[in-house]
Amino acid sequence: MKALNERPDVRRARERLEARDGETIALQRRIAAIPAPTGEESARGALIAEELARRGLAAIHTDTAGNVLGRLGNGPPPAPGLVIAAHLDTVFAGSVDHSVREHAGRISGPGIGDNARGLAALLALADVLPEMSLPAGAAVTFAATVGEEGHGDLRGAKHLFEDPAFRPPPRAFIALDGAGIERVVHRALGSRRLRARFQGPGGHSWAAFGVPNPAHAVGVATSLINEMPLPAQPRAAVSVVRIGGGNGLNTIPQEAWLELDLRAEAEPAVEQLWGGVTQALGRALDIVNRRRAAGTPPLTLHIEPLGHRPSGATDEKHALVQAALAATRSLGYAPALATASTDANVAIARGVPGIALGAGGRGGDTHLPTEWFENTDGPAGILRALLVVLATLD
Question: Does this model's pTM top 0.85?
Fold first, then answer.
């Protein structure tokens, strides 16, 4: 990594990133000001496509999922080569005020870090990489993806790996996600999400008392799920995240539901959680049905999958991970291996080496309207990503 840092083209790239840091921050603010709730990323995507074109990338297009793609390099098309990705979407509805504010060196606003910072860094890399000395046959695909957040379920990244045009598979996948310069995410946090609906006849809360109550079933299920044993390793989590149902204070509901988020660092553990939760839901159904008045119809249970994010890991000894650790150290920071759910999950699950990196600076209040970003060593975060790209292409 020392030799790479001393290359003349790398030194020039460092100077350019620092000289254009103000432009990068201005672009980050401009991106954040464009609402991009999951499923409605087109306006923000259009800006990214325009900026990629300004940087002279080839084959710029929006695919059928809404991902914005551009290509750099002298490798044979359409091979994607190394993929650098940043997601377009945010957790905020379009109706939320997306104004970007600044106070005492801190800028704040919905999505200013997650992921306006990642997108601004993606464009900064697209600005300097064309001037680098790349190996013969090297190719880099820049991807601004849709559907990374929440119910998007990594839709854009999944589409890339299912698209026949995205062949052969990438040699590596680097996701730029949010702020930071020390974490190297190489473990993909898997998850499954579901909605469980209990349905029954309902009725007047006095006159029909004795019919099985879907709301009671939700309560029993929540209690049983809370008592589920979880493995110490790999780390796992089961959370009831939303509950609803009913339409009046004097009515036994005809339907009540709960939504769950199940997470673990390994796919077998995720499947084990799924089995435990569905068993608990079935037990809750049986408990409430056994208490119903004679002759009343039983409750039914309907389980609706809401999402499945694959898990896995890129071995920490892999050259991609080692390059990220070395690049972090070379810039004077102490790297930390980490687990998270990012677009890199999809690559890792498909057997493609993948990591996620912060794009420099410091941030906080992620997924809140008060989300903030401080440009502390911002260019260094982008330079780190550049070093990892160059080391991977060599």
Answer: yes
